C-alpha cells in the first residue's frame, strides 16, 4: 500500500512499456519480505493461531525460506489463498511461492507453467465413515452420499474411483473444511473424503473420534509440495534446496538442539557442506554460507517440523508412514549436498 | 347547612361509571386489535403459536449460554447435555471478530478512534442542522482515518492533503487571479506540454494496439476479426496522434480568455508532477527529520467487522461522485458518451457482485502493468466502487428525471452554461430527491461487503468461516457466531435505514 | 441540458469553433472520448498480453471441449464425469435458472402475503411481519444462506434415523414423503402407455375452466346472473383427469422413495443445498418485496377503499378487485429488480455447495483448468444474458399492465 499504490495509480498515465525483468530473489530481497501463499486454514498445515500467528507444517517451509534468504523467519507475509485463487496469485506475482498442500500433477506443472520444487508431504485421498454404518471397504459405498471439499484434485479422483469400480454415488461439494465436518457429523453425508492427512486432523476434533473410521483404501497419489513460477530457476533452486536442507538435516541428524554445535565444524564433510563450513554451496545459490543453518534454525529439521505440527504427539496425530526418511522405509529423500 | 332538609339535591356530578369491561383498557384493545373478526382471531392464534414456538427454542438456549470456556469441548461438559449456546467463543475470539486476526492488538484503539471520528465527520452530511463548519472536518477526515488505520508516517497523508490544497490554489491562481496576458503565456506553455504529452501517449498507445493485434494473430475467424479491429484502431490512432496533440494543445491555449480549461489542465499537470517528483522525497525527508509514525499496518492485515465497515464507507464515498458522473453521462445528448455510460451501468447491474470480485481477485492483476503492485484490498475497493457507482447512477438518474423540465429551461434562460446549470440548479435538487435511494444502495452495499469472504479475505464472515470454525478448539460452533454477525449487521443497517426513513419524512415537502 | 443554441452565421466555421461553438463542441468531446477509450483499451490490452506472455499463458476456450472429470449431483440434463466442461457449464446454467425460478415465485408469494399482513388490523400479526421484514432486510443474504443451511442440516433427521426398528424419524403422508437433511424425497410419477390421454384430458379440462369462467363473466355482465365459479372450477380441474386415470387403468403411477442402503432411492429428490438456497433467497427477497407491496398498497388513495366499501364489497374483495390491481402498477417495476437480485444472488450457491453456474464453470472447472480469465468472462456473459432476458420479459409485462393514457 502507501506510496507505491498512489504512484501506481498515477503511473497509469505512463503507459509503461516493457516489463521489469528482475528475478524473484532480487524482488524479495528488495522488499525485505517473502510473500508466501498458504491456505485459509487447514489445522496442522497452515492456520492462524489464537494470536493471529500463522502456524503449521506448510508455514514452516515458508519461514525456512524466509530465514535462508532474509535471515528473518518472521519476514513473511502470509497470503491466504483459496483453491480458486492460488494459481493466479502465483502466476501474477502476488506471491513468491505457494506452500498450500498443492498436489504435484502433470497439468499443473506443464500446462499451468509452475515448477514444483519438491514434495514435503506424501498424501493420498481417503474416506472417513461412521463406524455404525459397518462399511469396511470403499467398494461397498454404492449409493452413498459423499461430502467432498472442493478446490483440489479430490473431485476428479472421486469421479474416477467410482467410475472405474462401476458404483454410483451422490457428490456433495463443500467449500470449507468446517462446513464439510458440519454436514458429515450431522449425517447429511455418509462419507467424507479429502486428503487422508486432513481427515485425520479433523477427526481428532470430533466429539467422539472413535465413532469414525478412516478406510484403508487410499484412492490417489497426492504428493504435496511448494511451487514457484516457471522460468525463474534461481528462485526455484532456493526453494527446492531449502526444503532439501531440512530433509538432509534430519537424515544427517542435525537438529535444532545440536545445530549451533555442528555449525562450528564437524568431521562429517556432508554436514560441513550443508552448514557452510566447507565449500560454498550458499554462494552458488546467491546466498551466504549460513543459509541452511538459518533455515534449520527456525523450527528444526524436517522430522522436528513434522513432529511439532502434525506428528503423533499433536492433536492431528499423523504417523510418519510414507513421509519417513528413505532410510526408515519412507519416501522422503533428498539429493546429496555436493 | 342544616341536616333537616330531606329533599336530596346532588351538589356534584356522579363520576362516570367505568365502561363495560369489554369496552375498556386491555380488553378493548385486544378486541379491536387481535380478535376483531374470525379471520383475525385465527391469525392471532397462529402468530402467537409461532412466537411461542420460537421463544421456546431460543430462550433456554440463550439462557443456558456458557460465557466462560476455553473450547467447544469444555462448553459441552459445562452444559452436560442441556441445550445451550457456547458464547465463550465470542469472548475468546472477540478481537478477531471485530478487528481480524492480523491487526496488531495494541493498535485497536486507533480503529476505534477512527470510527468515532467517522460519526463526527458524517454528522454534517447527514443532518442539515449541524453547524456547517464541521464540513471542514469531514473534508479532513479521510486523511486522518487513513493515518489512523494504516499507520505509517503522518507526513504521507499530510503531504497529500497539502498537495490537494496547493492544486486548488494553482487552479484559483490561473483561473482567476492573474491577468489575461499572463494567462495567455501560461496557456501557451501548458498547451504545448499537454499537447506534446498527449501526442506521445497516443503514439505509444498506437504501437501498443499494433502489438496486441500481432499477438492475437489470425488463427481462427474470431481472432481474425479481433486482429483487424485492433489494427484498425492502431491505424486510427497513428493517423490522429499528431492532430490530437495539436488540437488539444490549441484548445488549451485558446481557452486563455475564459480560463476554464487552462486552469483545470494546469492544476492536473501540477498535481501529477508533484505526486511523481516531489511527494515521495519530501515526505520521506520530513519523516526522517520528525517521525510522527504510527505502527504501519498492511491492508492485508485488516479484517473482521472493521474490514466490512472500511470497505462499505470507502466504496460508498468514492462511488457517489462516480455515480453522479455516470448519471449525467447517461442523460447526455452525446451518443458516444451516453453509450459508454449505458453499457457500463447495464453491464455492472447485470452481473453478480461475486463475479466482479472474481475479476478483482483473478483478473485485475493481469490488466495492470507488470511492476505495479495493487494489493487485494485496493483491487476489491476498485471493483466494489464500480459496482455501487452503477447502482447509485441509476438512483440519481431517477432524481434527474423527476426534476420538472422547467428547471432545465429556466437554467438555460438565465444564460447558464451546462456546467453552471448542472452545478447550481440541477444537481442540488436531483441529489436531494435521491438521498433516500442512495442510502438504500449504501445499506445494500454494506451488506454485500460480506461477499469478500468468498475470495479469501477475512472479513466478519470470512473470520467465522475460516479461522474460527476451523480452529481446533471451536470446531462445531455455528449459531453463536452467525447470530453475532447477524446482530452486528442488523444494528448498523437498521440504524441507517431508520435514518433514511426519517430523512424521507423530512424531505417530504408536499402534503397529501 | 441544451444550452443556448442560436449562434450567428453558420457558415463561419473556424478551427476554434470546434471548442467554442456549442454546435460543434459535442463532436469534439466525443472524439476525445473515443480516443480516450482506445487509449484505455491499448493500455489494458497491452498489459494483458504482456502479463500472459510473461506467465507463459494464452487465452483459449479449448478447455470447454475437454473432459470435465467431475460429477454433479443435480442434473437437469444427462451429464457424466466423462462429458465436457462445456456441458458441465450448461448443467450449471440450468441449475441457476431452476433456483432463480423457484426463488422468484416463492419470494413473490411470501412478499405479497407479508406485505398485505403488514397492513393488517391485527396488532400481533402486524408486529410479527415488521420484525420479519426488518430482520431479513438488515442482515446480509450470505449470512442468511449460511444460517438457513445450518438450520436445515441440524434440525432435520439424517436418512439413517429412518432405519431399523427404533427409527427416530418417519416419513410423512403415508410413507410417501421423506424430509431429511440431505433433501426432501418425493414420489415421482411414472408415465406408462395411456398416460398421454390422461394428460390431454387434463389439459382440456384446464381449457374448460377458462372457458367456463369466461362464460360466467359474460353471464354476469350481460344478464346480471352471478354463477359461482370456484367449486365448479375445482371440480373441472380434478374430476375428468381422475376419471380418465381410472378408466384407462391407472396409466400414471407414483414411484415412492424407499430407504435402501445409504439413501432413499426412487422418487424425486429435492436436494438440501437447493432447498437451503431457495428458501434463503425467497425469504430474504420476500422481505424486500413485502416492503414494495406495502408501498404499492399505501399508494392507492384511501378513497378507493372507501368507495369500494360503500359499494358493499367485503374487505377481501376490496383487496383483490380494487386495491391490488391498481397497486400492481406501482409494485411491478421494483419487483423486476428484485427478480434480478434473486438471480444474481443465486451465485452465492457456492457457499452451500449447490452446483449452479458459479459452482461449475466459475468453480470446479476454473479450478481444474486454471483458465481463470476465460471462465470468469464467460461466467459474466452468462449472467448478463440471464439478467437482460429477465428484464426484457418483465418490461414487456410491465408495459402491458401500464395505465393506458388516452
From TrEMBL, chain A:
- SMART domains, sorted: PBPb
For this protein, the record's SUPFAM superfamilies field holds:
Periplasmic binding protein-like II
Presence of the UniProt keyword Signal in the record: yes
Gene3D superfamilies given for it? Periplasmic binding protein-like II
Top-level taxon: Bacteria
Could you list this entry's UniProt keywords, alphabetically sorted: Signal, Transport
Domain named Solute-binding protein family 3/N-terminal: residues: 33-262
User: Could you provide one GO biological process annotation from this protein's UniProt record?
Assistant: amino acid transport
Q: Where is the signal peptide?
A: 1-22
**Membrane-traversing stretches:** none
Name of the protein described by the UniProt record: Amino acid ABC transporter substrate-binding protein
What is the native source organism of this protein? Actibacterium mucosum KCTC 23349
Q: What is the lineage of its organism?
A: Bacteria, Pseudomonadati, Pseudomonadota, Alphaproteobacteria, Rhodobacterales
UniProtKB/TrEMBL annotation, chain B:
This protein's GO cellular component annotations are: ATP-binding cassette (ABC) transporter complex
- One GO BP annotation of this record: amino acid transport
Q: Which Pfam families match?
A: BPD_transp_1
Where located? Cell inner membrane; Cell membrane
Major location category of this protein: membrane
Keyword annotations of the record:
Cell membrane, Membrane, Transmembrane, Transmembrane helix, Transport
Region of interest called Disordered, as start-end residue ranges on this chain: 1-20
Superkingdom of source: Bacteria
Protein family membership? Belongs to the binding-protein-dependent transport system permease family. HisMQ subfamily.
The name under which this protein is listed is Amino acid ABC transporter permease
Automatic annotation (TrEMBL), chain C:
Looking at the UniProt entry, the stretches that span the membrane are 27-49, 88-114, 135-153, 196-216, 228-248, 268-290, 348-369, 375-397
Q: Which PROSITE patterns match?
A: ABC_TM1 (PS50928)
Membrane topology type: Multi-pass membrane protein
Identify the residues that the record assigns to the ABC transmembrane type-1 domain, covering every copy. 93-394
InterPro entries in the cross-refs: AA_ABC_transptr_permease_3TM, ArtM/GltK/GlnP/TcyL/YhdX-like, MetI-like, MetI-like_sf
Molecular function as annotated in GO? transmembrane transporter activity
Q: Which Pfam families match?
A: BPD_transp_1 (PF00528)
Alphabetical keyword list: Amino-acid transport, Cell membrane, Membrane, Transmembrane, Transmembrane helix, Transport
What the entry lists under CDD domains is as follows: TM_PBP2 (cd06261)
The listed locations are: Cell inner membrane; Cell membrane
Q: What is its main location?
A: membrane
Q: What GO cellular component term, any one, is given?
A: ATP-binding cassette (ABC) transporter complex
Write down the SUPFAM superfamilies for this protein, in alphabetical order. MetI-like (SSF161098)
GO BP: any one term: amino acid transport
Family, per the entry? Belongs to the binding-protein-dependent transport system permease family. HisMQ subfamily.
- Protein name according to UniProt: Amino acid ABC transporter permease
Amino acid at each position: 500500500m502507501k506510496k507505491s499504490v498512489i504512484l501506481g495509480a498515477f503511473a497509469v498515465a505512463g503507459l509503461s512499456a516493457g516489463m521489469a525483468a528482475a528475478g524473484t530473489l532480487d524482488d524479495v530481497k528488495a522488499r525485505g519480505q517473502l510473500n508466501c501463499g498458504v491456505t485459509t486454514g487447514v489445522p496442522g498445515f497452515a492456520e492462524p493461531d489464537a494470536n493471529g500467528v500463522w502456524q503449521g507444517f506448510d508455514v514452516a517451509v515458508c519461514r525456512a525460506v524466509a530465514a535462508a534468504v532474509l535471515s528473518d523467519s518472521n519476514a513473511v507475509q502470509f497470503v491466504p489463498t483459496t483453491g480458486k485463487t492460488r494459481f493466479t496469485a502465483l502466476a501474477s506475482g502476488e506471491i513468491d511461492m505457494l506452500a498450500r498442500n498443492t498436489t504435484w500433477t502433470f497439468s499443473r506443472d506443464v500446462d499451468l507453467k509452475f515448477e514444483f520444487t519438491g514434495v514435503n508431504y506424501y498424501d493420498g485421498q481417503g474416506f472417513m465413515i461412521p463406524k455404525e454404518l459397518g462399511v469396511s471397504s470403499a467398494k461397498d459405498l454404492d449409493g452413498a452420499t459423499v461430502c467432498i471439499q472442493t478446490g483440489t484434485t479430490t473431485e476428479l479422483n472421486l469421479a474416477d474411483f467410482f467410475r472405474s469400480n462401476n458404483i454410483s454415488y451422490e457428490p456433495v461439494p463443500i467449500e470449507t473444511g468446517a462446513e464439510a465436518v458440519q454436514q458429515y457429523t450431522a449425517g447429511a453425508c455418509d462419507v467424507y473424503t479429502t486428503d487422508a492427512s486432513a481427515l485425520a486432523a479433523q477427526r481428532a476434533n470430533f466429539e467422539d473420534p472413535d465413532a469414525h473410521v478412516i478406510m484403508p483404501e487410499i484412492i490417489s497419489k497426492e504428493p504435496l509440495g511448494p511451487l514457484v513460477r516457471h522460468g525463474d530457476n534461481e528462485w526455484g533452486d532456493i526453494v527446492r534446496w531449502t526444503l532439501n536442507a531440512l530433509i538432509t538435516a534430519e537424515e544427517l541428524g542435525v537438529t535444532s538442539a545440536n545445530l549451533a554445535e555442528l555449525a562450528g565444524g564437524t568431521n562429517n564433510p556432508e554436514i560441513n557442506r550443508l552448514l557452510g563450513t566447507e565449500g560454498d554451496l550458499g554462494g552458488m545459490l546467491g546466498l551466504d554460507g549460513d543459509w541452511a543453518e538459518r533455515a534449520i534454525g527456525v523450527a528444526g529439521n524436517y522430522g522436528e517440523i513434522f513432529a511439532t505440527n502434525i506428528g503423533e504427539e499433536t492433536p492431528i496425530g499423523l504417523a510418519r508412514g510414507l513421509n519417513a526418511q528413505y532410510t526408515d522405509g519412507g519416501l522422503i529423500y533428498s539429493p546429496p549436498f555436493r | 347547612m342544616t341536616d333537616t332538609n330531606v329533599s336530596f339535591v346532588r351538589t356534584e356530578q356522579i363520576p362516570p361509571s367505568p365502561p363495560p369491561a369489554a369496552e375498556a383498557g386491555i380488553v378493548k384493545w385486544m378486541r379491536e386489535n387481535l380478535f376483531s373478526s374470525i379471520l383475525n382471531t385465527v391469525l392471532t392464534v397462529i402468530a402467537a403459536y409461532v412466537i411461542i414456538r420460537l421463544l421456546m427454542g431460543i430462550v433456554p438456549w440463550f439462557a443456558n449460554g456458557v460465557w466462560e470456556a476455553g473450547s467447544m469441548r469444555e462448553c459441552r461438559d459445562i452444559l452436560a447435555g442441556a441445550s445451550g449456546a457456547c458464547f465463550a467463543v465470542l469472548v475468546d475470539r472477540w478481537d478477531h471478530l471485530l478487528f481480524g486476526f492480523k491487526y496488531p492488538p495494541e493498535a485497536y484503539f486507533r480503529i476505534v478512534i477512527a470510527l468515532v471520528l467517522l460519526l463526527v465527520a458524517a454528522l454534517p452530511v447527514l443532518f442539515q442542522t449541524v453547524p456547517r463548519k464541521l464540513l471542514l472536518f469531514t473534508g479532513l477526515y479521510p486523511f486522518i482515518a487513513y493515518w489512523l488505520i494504516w499507520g505509517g508516517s503522518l507526513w504521507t497523508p499530510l503531504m497529500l492533503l497539502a498537495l490537494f490544497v496547493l492544486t486548488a490554489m494553482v487552479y484559483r491562481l490561473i483561473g482567476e487571479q492573474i491577468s489575461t496576458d499572463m494567462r495567455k503565456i501560461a496557456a501557451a506553455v501548458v498547451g504545448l506540454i499537454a499537447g506534446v504529452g498527449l501526442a506521445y501517449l497516443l503514439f505509444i498507445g498506437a504501437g501498443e494496439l499494433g502489438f496486441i493485434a500481432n499477438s492475437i494473430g489470425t488463427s481462427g475467424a474470431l481472432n481474425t476479426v479481433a486482429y483487424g479491429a485492433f489494427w484498425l484502431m492502431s491505424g486510427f490512432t497513428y493517423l490522429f496522434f499528431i492532430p490530437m496533440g495539436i488540437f488539444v494543445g490549441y484548445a488549451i491555449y485558446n481557452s486563455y480568455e475564459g480560463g476554464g480549461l487552462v486552469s483545470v489542465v494546469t492544476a492536473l499537470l501540477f498535481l501529477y508532477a508533484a505526486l511523481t517528483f516531489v511527494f515521495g522525497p519530501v515526505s520521506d525527508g520530513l519523516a526522517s527529520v520528525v517521525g510522527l509514525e504510527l505502527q504501519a499496518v498492511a491492508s492485508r492485515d485488516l479484517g473482521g467487522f472493521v474490514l466490512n465497515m472500511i470497505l462499505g464507507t470507502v466504496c460508498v464515498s468514492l462511488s457517489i461522485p462516480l455515480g453522479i458522473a455516470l448519471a449525467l453521462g447517461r442523460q447526455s445528448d452525446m451518443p458516444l458518451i451516453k453509450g459508454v455510460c449505458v453499457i457500463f451501468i447495464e453491464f455492472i447491474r447485470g452481473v453478480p457482485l461475486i463475479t466482479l470480485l472474481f475479476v478483482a481477485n483473478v483478473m485485475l492483476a493481469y490488466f495492470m502493468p507488470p511492476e505495479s503492485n495493487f494489493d487485494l484490498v485496493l483491487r476489491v475497493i476498485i471493483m466494489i466502487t464500480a459496482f455501487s457507482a452503477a447502482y447509485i447512477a441509476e438512483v440519481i438518474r431517477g432524481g434527474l428525471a423527476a426534476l420538472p423540465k422547467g428547471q432545465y429551461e429556466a437554467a438555460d434562460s438565465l444564460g447558464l452554461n451546462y456546467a453552471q446549470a448542472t452545478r447550481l440548479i440541477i444537481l442540488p435538487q436531483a441529489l436531494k430527491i435521491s438521498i433516500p435511494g442512495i442510502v438504500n444502495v449504501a445499506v445494500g452495499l454494506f451488506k454485500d461487503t460480506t461477499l469478500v469472504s468468498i475470495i479469501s479475505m477475512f472479513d466478519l464472515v470470512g473470520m467465522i468461516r475460516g479461522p474460527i470454525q476451523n480452529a481446533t478448539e471451536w470446531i462445531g460452533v455455528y449459531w453463536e457466531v452467525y447470530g453475532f454477525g447477524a446482530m452486528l449487521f442488523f444494528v448498523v443497517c437498521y440504524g441507517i435505514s431508520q435514518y433514511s426513513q426519517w430523512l424521507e419524512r423530512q424531505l417530504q415537502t408536499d402534503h397529501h | 441540458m441544451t444550452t443556448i443554441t442560436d449562434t450567428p452565421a453558420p457558415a463561419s466555421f473556424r478551427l476554434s469553433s470546434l471548442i467554442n461553438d456549442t454546435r460543434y463542441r459535442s463532436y469534439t468531446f466525443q472524439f476525445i472520448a473515443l480516443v480516450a477509450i482506445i487509449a484505455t483499451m491499448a493500455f489494458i490490452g497491452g498489459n494483458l498480453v504482456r502479463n500472459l506472455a510473461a506467465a507463459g499463458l494464452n487465452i483459449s476456450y479449448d478447455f470447454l471441449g475437454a473432459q470435465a472429470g467431475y460429477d454433479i449431483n443435480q442434473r437437469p440434463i444427462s451429464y457424466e464425469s466423462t462429458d465436457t466442461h462445456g456441458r458441465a457449464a450448461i448443467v450449471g446454467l440450468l441449475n441457476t435458472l431452476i433456483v432463480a425460478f423457484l426463488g422468484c415465485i416463492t419470494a413473490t408469494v411470501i412478499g405479497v402475503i407479508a406485505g398485505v399482513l403488514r397492513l393488517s388490523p391485527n396488532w400481533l400479526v402486524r408486529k410479527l411481519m415488521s420484525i420479519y421484514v426488518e430482520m431479513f432486510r438488515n442482515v446480509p443474504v450470505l449470512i442468511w444462506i449460511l444460517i438457513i443451511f445450518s438450520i436445515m442440516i441440524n434440525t432435520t433427521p439424517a436418512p439413517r434415523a429412518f432405519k431399523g426398528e427404533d427409527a427416530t424419524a418417519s416419513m410423512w403422508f403415508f410413507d410417501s414423503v421423506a424430509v431429511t437433511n440431505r433433501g426432501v424425497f418425493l414420489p415421482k410419477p411414472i408415465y406408462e402407455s395411456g398416460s398421454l390421454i390422461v394428460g390431454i384430458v387434463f389439459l382440456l379440462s384446464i381449457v374448460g375452466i377458462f372457458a367456463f369462467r369466461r362464460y360466467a363473466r359474460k353471464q354476469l355482465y350481460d344478464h346480471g346472473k352471478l354463477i359461482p365459479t370456484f367449486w365448479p372450477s375445482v371440480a373441472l380441474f380434478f374430476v375428468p383427469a381422475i376419471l380418465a386415470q381410472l378408466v384407462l387403468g391407472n396409466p400414471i403411477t407414483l414411484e415412492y422413495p424407499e430407504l435402501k442402503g445409504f439413501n432413499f432411492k426412487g422418487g424425486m429428490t429435492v436436494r438440501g443445498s437447493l432447498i437451503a438456497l431457495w428458501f434463503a433467497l425467497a425469504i430474504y427477497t420476500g422481505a424486500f418485496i413485502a416492503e414494495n407491496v406495502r408501498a404499492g398498497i399505501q399508494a392507492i388513495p384511501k378513497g378507493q377503499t372507501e368507495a369500494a366499501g360503500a359499494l358493499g364489497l367485503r374487505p377481501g374483495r376490496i383487496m383483490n378487485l380494487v386495491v391490488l390491481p391498481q397497486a400492481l402498477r406501482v409494485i411491478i417495476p421494483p419487483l423486476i429488480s428484485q427478480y434480478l437480485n434473486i438471480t444474481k444472488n443465486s451465485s452465492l450457491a457456492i457457499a452451500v455447495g449447490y452446483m449452479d453456474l458459479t459452482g461449475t464453470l466459475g468453480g470446479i472447472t476454473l479450478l481444474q483448468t486454471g483458465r481463470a480469465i476465460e471462465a470468469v468472462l464467460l461466467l459474466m456473459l452468462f449472467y448478463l444474458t440471464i439478467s437482460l432476458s429477465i428484464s426484457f420479459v418483465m418490461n414487456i409485462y410491465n408495459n402491458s399492465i401500464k395505465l393506458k393514457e388516452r
